[in-house]
Amino acid sequence: MPSAARQRAATKADTRSATLPTKLAAKPAAKPAAKPAAKPASTSPAAVSGAVGDPVGAPTPRRRVTVGDSGKDRLGRTDWIDAGAAILRESGITGVKLAALTARLGVSIGSFYHHFTSFEQYLGDLADHYSVERVRFELDIASAGKLGPVARIRRLGTVSLQRDTFRLDQAMRVWATMDARAEINLRRAEALVLVFLEQAFRDLGFGAKDAALRARILLSVNIAALGTDGDKPHGDYFKAALRLLATRPG
Fold first, then answer.
1. CA 187, CA 131: separation in Å to the nearest integer?
2. What is the pLDDT of residues 9-64, one digit of tens each?
């Protein structure tokens, strides 16, 4: 019996040692910690603008082109046109030279030819800008909203003063005497302004002929280089003429 008891005890011990590794192996291994799900791409304005040309999430602010920057990649056609308009206003058409433009913008001649095939093409584009782009832009501002006829005309005068259009108009008129391109675009600009003024006077109750006559008189007052009465500015003459022309007789 003692021998049989010892044998049964040994058998139980062997059974426990044999099944222990099996139980350990059956125990599932611990799962690695799950990685947090990636956040969706931001749809904020900064991120959206970055997706266009800059890295998303770290958009690089675009530097505004200013006079003095160099390199054709930093100057656009509009920069050259604006520089030409400024020189034309200050010095007249005789001052609009390629050397003056490059000096004003701080760039080389090669940068100019990146945007224009020749200086003659540039002058044509400069003339087009005066009538097509500049004048229409000012008329759009004057026509915005629900202003009355006189208020629209006054706003056009204010915008013209702010943009120094009077001096540019004078320079264009001198240029028009020697260049057909300038003359054509000057007439286009006049036609646009006359349509605007005629409509304003018709809205005041004037007939077609009277409205057209008043529009031409007012435009003439605006562009005429009249002598001043002491320190009275040219704008005061325009305002006085508008009051007179906008008043219905009787």
1. 8
2. 444 545 444 444 444 444 444 554 555 444 444 333 332 222 223 332 333 333 33
Backbone torsions φ then ψ of 127, nearest 5 degrees:
-65, -40
Nearest residue to 85 (alpha-carbon basis) of 75, 76, 95, 71: 95
Considering the domain architecture, whether residues 125 and 237 belong to the same structural domain is answered as yes
Shared domain for 124 and 110, answered yes or no, is no
Element (H or E) spanning 14, and its range?
helix 2-26
pLDDT digits (tens, 9 = 90+) for 120-136: 999 999 999 887 788 99
Q: Is residue 59 part of a domain?
A: no
Q: Please tell me the total count of domains within the chain.
A: 2
DSSP secondary structure letters along 63-130: PPP-TT--SGGG--HHHHHHHHHHHHHHH-GGG--HHHHHHHHT--HHHHTTT-S-HHHHHHHHHHII
Sign of CA dihedral 249, 245, 224, 199: negative
Q: Give the structural domain span for 111.
A: 69-116
CA 43 to chain centre: 24
Contacts 24+ apart (CB under 8 A), 174-183: 174/92, 174/93, 175/88, 175/92, 175/93, 175/127, 178/93, 179/93, 179/123, 179/127, 181/123, 181/124, 181/127, 182/93, 182/127
